[in-house]
Specification:
Oligomer: single chain
Radius of gyration: 21 Å
Distance between the termini: 56 Å
Strand order of the largest sheet: 2-1-3
CATH superfamily: Rhodopsin 7-helix transmembrane proteins
Order of helices and strands: HEHHEHHHEHHHHH
Largest sheet: 3 strands, mixed
CATH topology: Rhopdopsin 7-helix transmembrane proteins
Length: 313
């Protein structure tokens, strides 16, 4: 901490947000607040349903519950402050608060990226090697997937933040976004950051792009396998797989665009950041619940049980 304080003259960053108009900010507050409530309720409802409903005690739903937990955490890193800032004229964040936002955004983002790969492996085994599914996707394997996801997220963020924390910031201190993000903050450093910029591109941009392409290739293989079959099981697998493909595109699309070309001047990046950190965590539970009969049935059972317990004298 002393290293940063000794080399930094500024104590806070100014966030420009989405608009400077008070009326527009109130409008955004009216949108973002219910969206965040929906994110919390939707994702935690999936987690609770998977934990307490025995019908969902399977590898696919175990991974889905962890994805919902990552979504909840990812949205909660910056969104509550973003919503509060819509009611403030001056939007600021301390230097260490900014570092914390970036650390946890990439921590949970990297973990979710790894978990999506694990979910693709689960679907690949279920579709292409169904006879070996229970042998391969054992509880031990699921725990390994989960540990790897948290580990990859930690390594992903630490490898970038360990260099960012030591940067000197002496002004300007204006971040053209609703929260701190690596490319925007790095550009404000009072030193040469070319090597760090390359690290961010390689670590976040190329990694996202490569994982995205590999996932798409694996889904193509699974779709071809499903196409060769004709049964009700194949129809169910196609429905589940289409939900996975949608979520992967929603997650990796904006992330790849933002971090593969992170230091170009794209105004659209601000809105992609909103999509990546807020809209995607909202859409994931909607996609999985609306397209999954078992999940909808489990949520109905959970809600009916709770309502029944409340009505009991």
């Amino acid at each position: 901490m002393a290293l940063l304080n000794n080399r930094t003259n500024i104590t806070e960053f100014i966030l420009l947000g989405l608009s400077s108009s008070p009326e527009v900010q109130i409008f955004f507050f009216a949108i973002f607040f219910p969206v965040y409530v929906a994110i919390v309720v939707g994702n935690l409802l999936i987690v609770i349903s998977v934990i307490f409903d025995s019908h969902l005690h399977s590898p696919m739903y175990f991974l889905l519950a962890n994805l919902s937990f990552f979504d909840f955490c990812l949205a909660s890193v910056a969104t509550p402050k973003v919503i509060a800032d819509f009611l403030r004229k001056h939007k600021t964040v301390s230097v260490w608060g900014c570092m914390g936002q970036m650390f946890f955004m990439h921590f949970f983002g990297g973990g979710e990226m790894s978990l999506l790969i694990a979910m693709a492996i689960d679907r690949y085994v279920a579709i292409c090697k169904p006879l070996h599914y229970k042998t391969i996707m054992r509880p031990r394997m699921l725990i390994i997937f989960l540990i790897l996801s948290w580990t990859v997220g930690f390594i992903h963020t630490t490898s970038q933040m360990i260099f960012t924390v030591g940067l000197p910031f002496c002004g300007p201190n204006v971040v053209d976004s609703i929260f701190c993000d690596l490319p925007l903050v790095i550009k404000l450093a009072c030193t040469e950051t070319y090597n760090l910029e390359l690290l961010v591109i390689a670590n976040s941009g190329l990694l996202s792009l490569i994982c995205f392409l590999l996932l798409l290739m694996s889904y193509v293989v699974m779709l071809v396998t499903i196409w060769k079959r004709s049964s009700s099981a194949s129809s169910k697998a196609l429905s589940t797989l289409s939900a996975h493909i949608t979520v992967v595109n929603l997650f990796f699309g904006p992330a790849t665009f933002i971090y593969a070309f992170p230091f170009s001047s794209y105004t659209v990046d601000k809105f992609l950041s909103v999509f990546y950190s807020i809209i995607t965590p909202l859409l994931n539970p909607i996609i999985y619940t609306l397209r999954n009969q078992e999940m909808k049935a489990a949520i109905k059972r959970l809600c009916s049980q709770k309502i029944g317990s409340w009505l009991k004298p």
